[in-house]
Amino acid sequence: MIKFRCILLGFLALSFFSCKNDEEKVEEAPTESFRNEVAATEVRVAIAEVKSFDYLINAIGKLEAASQVTAVIEQAGFLIELNVTEGQSVEKGEVIARLDPTEAQLRLDKAEISLRNANAEYESMKLGYETIFNSGDEAQKNAIEEQLKAKSGLFMAEVELKEAMLNRARCELKAPISGKIADLKFKEGSLVGANQELCEILGSKQMILKVKVLESDISLISPNQKAEVYSISNSQNTIEGRVIGINPKVDENGLVQVSVAINSTANLLPGMNARAIIRAPQNNSLVVPKDALVYRSGRAVVFSIENEESKWNYVEVGKDNGEEVEILEGLEPNSTVITSNNLQLAHQAPVQIVKD
């Protein structure tokens, strides 16, 4: 019996040490063997380059006509002719409306008669001073001539004729600039008063987009800087523009108004909403494609490749233009960075570079 117990204890001890050795063998299995069993993640890559980087400043605003003039009827009368409609294009100097000229023409006729009468009176009065006018004394002759013109009423008649001619001319309202008619206020046949507005004329040669830019970006903008403009109604077509003005004050929202002149005005109207993209080149920036940037626990990460494995790099991000991102710290220039399949990628994961 004692012998049997000894044999049983020996067998149990042998089994215990054998299991322990097996466990130790499992624990001692190299991690590399597991890594070799994991399939490499296929990734696309790019190079982190130091180059000029276009930072894009986006802003939305409203279009305005570069020139806008109010056409004013300067004297009272009946509007007997209206040659324009809203939206119609006119050229500078074109007659857009006419008032009844009857009264103005009568005043002009009277002024012309008054001038002739005054001139006849002046010539008659000169006959009494033939000796002086035939003499060579120019100073005395000019003095007498001035006196006679004043006494005959010739000076006043000339002024009254100019005034009558001006009033007659005001019966025709001409376009002060080339552009399009807007806000027409009267119809043909209306009785209008002096100095009343007939319409607005919006210059059609150029338009201005006024946008609001963050004060933190205003140092990157300067006059004549190029801009791309997209109207909200046609966001596919790019319109070339340039910065022509920067308001020298910041509003209560921390925004600065910037004016962008647009070279093309096709299919654009004042009051339309539009978006401006102002390019601000940044020299010698370390740049990676935006797809290379991922966020882990709220921190920016870029994966690079070393020895066919992914390397986790915490980075500090600068400006972003929608396609590329500026890297301020955390990545070496000319690093090969991963741009695809990096959302769930781990540090030191095996990777395989693929090409399109």
From TrEMBL:
**Domain CusB-like beta-barrel: residue ranges:** 209-280
Top-level taxonomic group: Bacteria
Give the record's keywords alphabetically. Signal
Q: What InterPro entries would the database entry show?
A: Beta-barrel_RND_2, MdtA-like_BSH, RND_pump_MFP, YknX-like_C
Q: Which Pfam families match?
A: Beta-barrel_RND_2, BSH_RND, YknX_C
Check the UniProt entry and state the signal peptide residues, or none.
1-21
Question: Gene Ontology terms, cellular component aspect?
Answer: efflux pump complex
Q: Which residues form the YknX-like C-terminal permuted SH3-like domain?
A: 286-351
Single Gene Ontology MF annotation: efflux transmembrane transporter activity
Which residues does the UniProt record annotate as the domain Multidrug resistance protein MdtA-like barrel-sandwich hybrid?
Answer: 76-198
The Swiss-Prot or TrEMBL record describes its family as follows:
Belongs to the membrane fusion protein (MFP) (TC 8.A.1) family.
User: What protein name is recorded for this chain?
Assistant: RND family efflux transporter, MFP subunit
Source organism per entry reads Algoriphagus halophilus
